[in-house]
Amino acid sequence: MLRACPYPKIFESAPACGVRPFFECKKHDMIELFGISVSAQPIWLTLKVALTTTVILLLVGTPLAWWLAHMRSSFKIVLEAIVALPLVLPPTVLGFYLLIAMNPNGALTQFLHVFGFEGQLTFSFTGLVIGSVFYSLPFAVQPLMHAFEGLPMRLLDAAATLRAGVLDRFFSVVVPLARRGFLVAGTLTFAHTVGEFGVVLMVGGNVPDTTRMVSIAIFDHVESLEYAEAHLLSGMMLVFSVVVLMLVYGINRRFAVKVG
Amino acid sequence: MLKGDLSLKQGDFLLQSGAFEIETSGISVLFGRSGSGKSTLLRAITGLDKHTRGSLSFNGERWQDAKWRLPAPKRDIGFVFQDAALFPHLSVRGNLEYAVRRAPAGGSSLLELAERVGIAHKLDQSVTTLSGGEKQRVAIARALLSKPRLLCMDEPLSALDWRAKGELLPLIEELARETGVPVLYITHAPVEVERLASRVVFMADGRIERIETLREALARPDSSLFDEEGPVSVLEGRLSAPNEHGLCAFGEEGERLWIGAPTHPTDERPLRLRILARDVSLALDDPSRISILNHLAVTVERIDPPKDGRVTVATRTTGGQLLLAEITPWSLTRLELEPGRIIYALIKSVALME
Q1: pLDDT of B163-210, one tens digit each?
Q2: CB neighbours (10 Å) of residue B214?
Q3: Searching chain A, which residue's CA lies closest to the CA of residue B11?
Q4: C-alpha–C-alpha distance, residues B120 and B113, integer Å
Q5: Residue A10 to residues A14, A126, A221, B165, Cα–Cα distance (Å)
Q6: What is the CATH number of domain A41-254?
Q7: Hey, which residues 170-229 in chain A have their CB within 8 Å of chain B?
Q8: Host H or E run for residue A167
Q9: Closest partner residue to A259 among B74, B88, B143, by Cβ?
Q10: What's the rounded Cα separation, in Å, for the pair B90 and A209?
Q11: Which of A162, A257, A259 minimises the CB distance to B98?
């Protein structure tokens, strides 16, 4: 239903896109649901950050997960622990270190300036995405790793002897057989990024219209005793989360490939 | 000629083949106990393992040397795995098309080959619904459709029941002959060696012990082919049509044997007959009033030293084929056997290797 208000038009003008009787775009950045109106900006920003993070993590996580899945060295447990770190570390700790690393006068920002990067990493969309990528790393890497570990290497050997090169083998054998891993990784990463709070608060701050994501907006509403708005956003998150988890379990059942 | 010297470490196992030259015609069987390095050698030859070291050339074409390795997809090797390794996400047809799409044009079509290996009626089924024997048929067809210059088979029959084995052995032999593709075939079953091999590559402890023709391998008293069932002879010959008693004559005049009619048509090609030495008795005269049908006049060629209370006597038939008999040392003294003497071999049982 939110698709009816295409981002980023919503910031420019008032789109006329009330499609459901209970859903209406009131002002340029407000949506109204069940008679409660909340700012739409955190919702779009959250979806945008989550989508960007998911795409990046699938691109980066795939080779990383492959490498980890087939690593024989005892160094593997160290890397596995590092990848899993965001699962146990308080998000504020991760956020704090990222904040230090992305300090506007720090080495990382200066390094990016060499490549023509303008502005700063902290309190910006780029910063939010970088933070989310680290925070959601295990949710992309672990399902992919398990999928790759369960992949019989003989099948790749068979493909190689049938003249399939590396990329050919990846797309013709690995992707179809590990599709469940890719779907679960993508869904979990997206959902987990939508649900983050600590890291985005630390790295992004709470800049209205720039880095305020849904989870922070809920916090703000509660702080301001705007319980109706908090209810609405929380309810949306709840429904979203249930749907995502059902999707994940559905994927696990539906796309199970019998291997071997 | 497949020529090289390869080494490959896999876990705790170290393959160090030593220099070898294997002729690239017919079926070369890699034989040895489990853990002798057969599969590792085959992997090293295919180029599937990047940790392989050493040198390798195929019919004069360089495949590997100290600094360089031709990647597996470029070696034109067909590979049939022990468990078939079919792609579970593709149908039978999909598996075969996978090979066709990546192979050079020409040769047998997908349908012809599917027909030939007997899976044409299963083309649209999922490979997970196939029996073990059917899976191997698809795997063989898939490997051949990739137009290989060398076909490697890693114990393709070991996971199958005796019936499927009995059907696939002749198929493999016929396909090797029809396509002319040289085959490297791994097995630890002497029966498969005796049935298929043009030559045998003996492996033990991660190295190649020796490469011999099947004839040479069977003439060697300490051959490891004999470890399981004792010494074995393989006679070659053609089979005639069954007589009124349902028996077929095998071999030339003078060394003719009577055997039961085969279950499959055998056309005109030469067949192999497998005779265990313990099923051969020796007599100084040709007994006439005896139920055993097959008596051959043979010349004693060699008497091996006793082993485990048995003596192997190697004899030649009139056609020059080697026939081994296992007798007790006491019988040996009683019959006063010595090389050059003409005696009679009474064969209690033979197995036709169809």
Answers
A1: 888 888 888 988 888 888 999 999 988 888 888 888 999 998 888 988
A2: 22
A3: A72
A4: 8
A5: 6, 20, 22, 70
A6: 1.10.3720.10
A7: 172-173, 176-177
A8: helix A166-169
A9: B88
A10: 49
A11: A162
The SS3 of residue A2 is helix
Q: Tell me which of B12, B52, B79, B136 to substitute to probe the interface with A (most A C-beta atoms closer than 10 Å).
A: B79
Residue at B250: amino acid letter: F
What CATH number does domain B2-221 carry, 3.90.190.20, 3.40.50.1220, 3.30.1200.10, 3.40.50.300?
A: 3.40.50.300
B92-102 and B110-117 helices, crossing angle to 10° = 130
Q: Do B81 and A164 touch (CB under 8 A)?
A: no
Task: Write out chain B residues lying below 8 Å of A152, CB-based.
Answer: 85
In the block, tokens 């779009």 appear at A44
Give the domain ranges of chain A: 1-33, 41-254
Query: A162–B142: do the CB atoms touch at under 8 Å?
Result: yes
Give the residue from B258, B195, B259, B269 showing the smallest Cα distance to B232.
Answer: B195
From CA B313, how far away is CA B110, in angstroms rounded? Answer: 51
DSSP assignments along A113-165, one per residue = HHTT--S-STTSHHHHHHHHHHHHHHHHHHHHHHHHHTS-HHHHHHHHHTT--
**Tell me, what's the pLDDT at A117?**
74
Residue extents of the structural domains in chain B? 2-221, 232-353
CATH fold for the domain made of B232-353: OB fold (Dihydrolipoamide Acetyltransferase, E2P) (2.40.50)
Chain B residues with beta carbon closer than 8 angstroms to that of A174:
none
Contact of B182 with B26, CB cutoff 8 Å: yes
ipTM: 0.79
Which candidate from A152, A155, A258 shows the least CB-CB separation from B128? A258
Query: A interface mutation test: which of B79, B80, B87 has the most A CBs within 10 A?
Result: B87
Give the chain A residue nearest B144 (alpha carbons).
Answer: A162
CB contact under 8 A, A177 and B89: yes
- pLDDT tens for A79-90 read 999 999 988 888
Give the tens place of pLDDT for each residue, A15-45. Answer: 344 334 444 444 457 777 787 877 778 888 8
Residue identified by tokens 């050059």 is B340
* H or E element at residue A235: helix A227-254
